[in-house]
Design brief:
single chain; Rossmann fold; seven-stranded mixed β-sheet; three-stranded antiparallel β-sheet; 8 helices; globular; disordered N terminus
Length: 274
């Protein structure tokens, strides 16, 4: 399957160094939300070139597996693994298909599932629910956590709001679930152009509930001390006032995994506060 990420390997790989918010806000906040992974088995959905799968393994994960639909991303990650020998495994599969959670050595095998900017690429409610179903099926039946960085349902529509952080986000003004949008990011000499879809907080929570997650928390990002010292408080003010991404921490209790076939999502009554 062709993916819009197939041609983005180089830019994605260098983005941590080239875009300060990725290291000092995104990674700092996301890894803090994931917490201690020492001795745990972790699956990273939409792993891309393996950035987070490698970091989770280095942080002490007993087993780290990355899954991505982009063959180019997975091949790159596997080449890096061959050189570095960290013990990270990679699987080429579409996590939006719930069947990905039933693959051998994936189903019921993990304590924690992670995903960074994966759910915003669900083009339908069925795909959004599919991502969540894959996460739950990959977790142990006894329960576990799904920690995901997602598009803030209330991100700023001011086209210049995030320009100082190396990106522009644009979207149609529409209350409809799955409204399309576009991300343009400057990563050194590379330019990333990616399409995404907007989903309300209620749509996320409904998809997670349908998949078998019974406790969902929303976490606002923060800036590392190094980031504050290096760039100053004023640099981060716009981003922290209205971040383009939030973090979901979804927990599944010990119980049987329910039928996670797609169901209509409820209408959005509430969204996270800016």
């Amino acid at each position: 399957m062709d993916s819009q990420f197939d041609t983005a390997v180089a830019a994605y790989e260098s983005s941590m160094e080239e875009m300060p918010f990725r290291e000092h806000v995104e990674a700092y906040s996301f890894l803090n939300a994931v917490g201690d992974v020492i001795g745990r088995d972790v699956l990273d959905l939409g792993c891309g070139s393996g950035l987070y799968a490698r970091r989770l393994r280095r942080a002490g994960a007993a087993r780290a597996v990355g899954m991505d639909e982009s063959a180019a991303m997975v091949e790159h990650a596997q080449r890096r693994e061959a050189r570095e020998g960290l013990g990270v495994e990679y699987v080429a599969a579409d996590a939006a298909d719930p069947a990905a959670g039933d693959l051998p050595d994936i189903a019921g095998s993990f304590d924690v599932v992670t995903a960074v900017y994966v759910l915003p690429y669900a083009s339908s409610q069925a795909e959004l629910q599919g991502f969540c179903a894959t996460a739950r099926r990959a977790l142990r039946v006894a329960g576990g956590r799904f920690v995901a960085a997602v598009l803030n349902p209330e991100f700023s529509t001011d086209p210049q709001w995030y320009r100082g952080y190396g990106m522009l986000l644009s979207s149609q003004e529409s209350p409809e679930e799955g409204t399309p949008g576009h991300l343009r990011a400057w990563v050194g000499p590379e330019v990333l152009d990616l399409d995404f879809f907007r989903w309300s907080a209620a749509a996320h929570e409904e998809a997670l509930k349908t998949a078998g997650f019974d406790r969902v928390s929303w976490i606002r990002p923060t800036v590392s001390e190094e980031g504050r010292a290096r760039y100053g408080e004023a640099f981060w003010a716009n981003y922290l006032n209205c971040p383009h991404a939030l973090i979901i921490d979804a927990q599944a209790s010990p119980k049987a995994v329910p039928d996670s076939r797609p169901r209509p999502a409820r209408s959005a009554d509430e969204t996270p506060q800016q």
